[in-house]
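Record 1 of the preview.
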Amino acid sequence: MTSKVLGLSAMLGLSFVLLGCDDAPGRPRPGPQVLRPEQELDFAMLYQSNCAGCHGAQGNHGAAIALSNPVYLAIAGEDVLKDITSHGVHGSLMPAFARSSGGTLTDQQVEVLAHGMVKAWGQPNGLSAPSLPAYKTILSPDTTRGQQQFAASCSSCHGADGTGTQTAKGDKIGSIVDPSYLALMSDQAIRSIILAGLPDRGMPDWRSDSATPMTDQQITDVVAWMASQRGPSAGQPYPSHP
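->
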């Protein structure tokens, strides 16, 4: 009986020792769980890692269009944001981020980014869908009408011919019809800027360029006229063929 009691006591003592090992001095404690890149689903982390470099840490004041602009978010919507993030924008510096298009993000991560932008920076009650022009137009453009509309809606800042003006404070607004500038801008990029403006640079959106908001047709025509100023070898010092 005595040997059995001693044996049981020894086993219990060993159990207490083993259980107490987690609190033993010098024993390393488990650190926070490290996620694999494809497991990260936090919007802030995904945005800072993939978007902030071009669009700004808070969605603005970056080299690319402001993603924290509620007007842009209302017109583009989540579906467009997912498509752009997934597949990029052809002819621009916007790359594809989805794995299916050669990027590094899963479809779920792309959805987190698109939804997070709208949730963080959108104003769902600020703009009503029926009054919004389309993000992408299906209308046929007219460059002659576009030049006329540009003069009516944009000339106060950009000059009647788009070559720029000087403000009352002495600030110069450069040309937006320079072929080198237009070579860096897709038609959709021009349209997006007209639609959403550049609020961090003082440019208004499509509603306040003139006394009345521009229509979808007018925006389409202005984009077509601006795009026609690119020339055959826009941005290149020499033509592609002698």
